[in-house]
Amino acid sequence: MKSKARHIGIVACSAEGASLCYRTICTEGAALLGPHAHPEISMHTPSLADYMECIYRDDWLGVGEIMLASAAKLAQAGADFLICPDNTIHQALPFVQERSPLPWLHIAQVVAQEAKGRGFRRIGITGTKWLVESDVYPEQLAAAGLEFVRPTPEEREAINRFIMDELVAGVRTPEAVAYFQEVMTRMEQQGCDAVVLGCTEIPLIMNDDNSPLPTLDSTRLLARAALQRAVEASLRA
Description:
By secondary structure, the protein is α/β, with parallel strands linked by helices.
């Protein structure tokens, strides 16, 4: 008999990104575990407003406390490890990991490993203004021997508006697609050979079919890494 897959805990922040991550684990689990099968999953989602209150005042310790509260509830629910399908709040993960009741997969580390494995060398970073101004991706990309390009300050503000005013609310517009394409074209001109979709909602509108650069879909890559970790014991059995 195969060993039971590990129980995945999802520390959710915004609904659209968390939903896409959850759906990816559920739908792609069958390829590893059999028809209709996927690992057990628990998700805890505090109000996004609670996170944003901390983020707006640059209180990353406060963000970390909210993440830890989710982690504790997911540990009580029986989760074996944790993922967070939100790139921005990974800025607080260093404040969380030592106190966490469970281990975490790091979304940017997963993306950097994928980029290196696919032979990319210079990566464009897209996401909220808080994410692209942080060290979340630069640290992980540099550790993998990869270069990176950030959006300009003006682009960061515009991208942030599209994310926070539209994508987080599930709104998808041609204007947003066109603007992301414009930014990615500029990154290509700066020597980028791939782009990170570094907000978990960006894959709702951008993909390899409409991007001028190959995309690194942080949401689905994290989901697949979690799925792989969850089923490792089953695959070895």
